[in-house]
Design brief:
- With about 300 residues, this protein is of the alpha/beta class.
- It has 2 domains: about 200 residues, Formyl transferase, N-terminal domain (Rossmann fold, 3-Layer(aba) Sandwich), CATH 3.40.50.170; about 90 residues, Methionyl-tRNA Fmet Formyltransferase, Chain A, domain 2 (Roll).
- About 25% of the residues lie in helices and about 25% in strands.
- It has 8 helices and 15 strands.
- The strands form 3 sheets. The chain has a 7-stranded mixed β-sheet, with helices on both faces. Strands 10, 11, 12, 13, 14 and 15 form a 6-stranded antiparallel β-sheet that branches. A two-stranded antiparallel ribbon has the order 3-4.
- Helix 1 runs parallel beside helix 6.
- It starts with a strand and ends in a 15-residue tail after the last helix.
- The model has no long low-confidence stretch (mean pLDDT about 95).
């Protein structure tokens, strides 16, 4: 088929590669280059980098509702749009361009976790499974009929990052198979059950502030769900500390109370039970194992970590 591919982050890379192997990619639409790193130099999104390596033309519009992109893509006469983590909602004039529709690879089992951060919220909310699905796009937020889906278990040690890596690979396989059925007209999408719909809103920096007054399993799930971004953060003496690799362990004490070094890492009491963090990171410093961190930043047992500075 003649395809226009929309995508931006690394999650979309396996899908772009899979689509480019089997179909004619007329253009790739990605987010504009953004400042990144300490020097705030403009950096292209990963999908743009791959598209250029594959020799594919790239569009990076700053606006979607002015009709300009719709006019450009209409001239290409695409059969389908494929959208994978593009990061922006397509307006009706764009959705109307491809003759066989616009199809989105979404990283959840719709109708659960509609929105921008389905992987993160599935981990944070303690789900035991999630998945990927291919959905025909319409004007609503992830409300279109679902053509195909695959389940994926969420492991006890999964972060949003590790889970995303697996879903990106499995999603590309599901997408490739679904496009063949779209091409030959055998796809039969099912309407979503609105009664089961939940939302997965865009992550904010504050979502990484750990609530150590919660159950240890809830704390662990939150810490893993915000890794790699915005990162799990606690405060020690008013200073933010990033924590990684949580493991639920035995123990009790006041929420946030340091219990010392355990085999799994720095042990911290929660509202119920305790969590050990394998690695920690101070602002402007490198991430390091708990034992090495404590060697350079001794924290006496009994001292407390807080959710936010001064609280």
């Amino acid at each position: 088929m003649r395809v226009v591919f929309f995508g931006s982050p690394a999650f979309a890379l396996p899908s772009l590669e899979a689509v480019a192997r089997e179909h004619q990619v007329l253009a790739v639409v990605s987010q504009p280059d953004r400042p990144a790193g300490r020097g705030k130099q403009l950096q292209p999104p990963p999908v743009k980098v791959l598209a250029m390596r594959l020799g594919l033309p790239v569009e990076q519009p700053t606006k979607l509702r002015d009709g300009v992109l719709a006019k450009i893509l209409t001239a290409l006469q695409p059969d389908v749009f494929v959208v994978v983590a593009y990061g922006r909602i397509l307006p009706p004039d764009l959705l109307a361009v491809p003759k066989l529709g616009a199809w989105n690879l979404h990283a959840s089992l719709l109708p659960k976790y509609r929105g921008a951060a389905p992987i993160q919220w599935a981990v944070i909310r303690g789900e035991s499974k999630t998945g990927v699905c291919v959905m025909r796009m319409e004007e609503g937020l992830d409300t279109g009929p679902v053509a195909a889906s695959l389940e994926e278990s969420i492991r006890d040690d999964d972060t949003a990052g590790t889970l995303a890596d697996r879903l990106a690979t499995r999603g590309s396989q599901l997408l490739a198979a679904s496009l063949l059925r779209i091409a030959d007209g055998t796809v039969t999408p099912r309407v979503q059950d609105e009664a089961g719909a939940t939302l997965a809103p865009l992550m904010k920096k504050e979502d990484g502030y750990l609530d150590l007054g919660a159950n240890a399993r809830v704390v662990s799930a939150q810490a893993r769900g915000v890794d790699p971004w915005p990162g799990a953060t606690v405060f020690l003496g008013g200073e933010p500390v990033k924590v990684f690799g949580p493991r639920v362990i035995g123990g009790q004490g006041a929420p946030g109370e340091i219990q010392g070094l355990a085999p799994q890492g720095l042990a911290v009491a929660c509202g119920e039970g305790a969590v050990a963090f394998a690695e920690l990171q101070m602002p402007g410093r490198r991430r390091m194992p708990a034992a090495a961190f404590l060697a350079g930043h001794p924290i006496p047992a009994g001292e407390r970590l807080n959710r936010a500075s001064g609280r």
